[in-house]
Sequence to fold (453 residues):
Amino acid sequence: MPPNPDPAAEPLLEVIEDLALPHLHAAAWATCRDGGWRFGHGSNAGEARYFWTLDLNGDAAFDAIWQQARAKCERLAGARLRVIRQYANGHTYGLGGSPHVDDDRPGTYTLLYYPMAEWKADWDGETCFYDGKGEIAFAVQARPNRAVFFDSRIPHNGRAPSRSCPALRVTVAYKLETIPDAALPAEDTALTGSVAGLPGVELQETRRDAEKLELRVHVDAAKIEADVATALEALGRSVSLPADTAGGTPSAAIASRYGAQARHDILRRIAATLIDLHLNARGTIVAECELLPETASGGADFRVAATDLTVLPPFTFTDWRIEIPIPGAGITPADAAPGGAVREKILDWMDAAYRYPILPSLVERELAGLLRTPEIAAIARDGEGAEALRDELRALAERRLRLGFLVLEIARRLGLSGGDGAALEDAVIAHILTQARFGVGAAPETDPRETPS
Fold:
């Protein structure tokens, strides 16, 4: 394991298996498969070694993965964390990255996630970490749903896949920093007004219908201009452009060439920070931002659509009576295991009892992932009943999302940890098993949450 840049501290690098719940892993890979990649990203400024990149700021599936991983990362760091930026890098044969550090500031960290659905050992593509002499001190193999959390000051690089690899090696980087106490919102802060930690940003709740929430965000022109100027100044230290033929300066040429992209990146970063720091810090709030047409003032406005699970009623499972089609007394461990009859019945009840709305874009993204399964793709494209199959799969996609986000909120409220990914669902199921009442017979068609007498 590589040494921590702080010689007085223990090395901070942890490999995390099965980071995301299965439905989030599938949704994340569907996002990466949907396109939007651009070529020309590099590990170090001014270096002509390019690969592919995909902006993921504000993506609901990756936001939800961070919310699931946040508590573990904050325990490792010993501090509250926020996302500065999140994006994916894509590498193919011959397009590896160079050794670099993600940030040279103390208190910065990276969560590196492998969202691929499949990765074979002979495809290579390791992430290598280096010691102070430039030697490889630690290497992490790329594996689906694996992640690495580390101090951003540790030098590292992503190796290119082997010649035998037909796929894109994808890593998702969550760039993180510690949150100053002054930037933390008060627990009772309303979803209207100034946003702590984001000066020049105003938030207004425009609509709320049970769990369905809509917000409008305004960003002052002065903040955008100041942030863009800072970004361009930093860029100017790493690139060199000649003055233009009209007598302009190199700085003007940089602004002309990169100004629009810098503004776009700044606004996406503000949206991601808003969701992460002001919404997700309250609980499970699944949100997506839409940038509205520019205002005459030069400012910017966003429309935020969200599902707020924090307003769901208390999870009092002692009021539940679940009928299970299992003869005989007692529940075996196999019954509560994945695919077991009791577990499936509990999930059925959860899906029926909490019918909160899911953002349509998330459902369509999840559906797209299901439709890429080779057997399903052939039937959906050419077979009889293709439309009926799509409707059935759309319902399945919505169920998977509903249950996945519900597990996150139940675990948050009850203080359950149980590990990462599927282990979190195991912890929730285990808790319900100790609380709910079970009977043998056909499941009733009523809400499982009985009214207490």
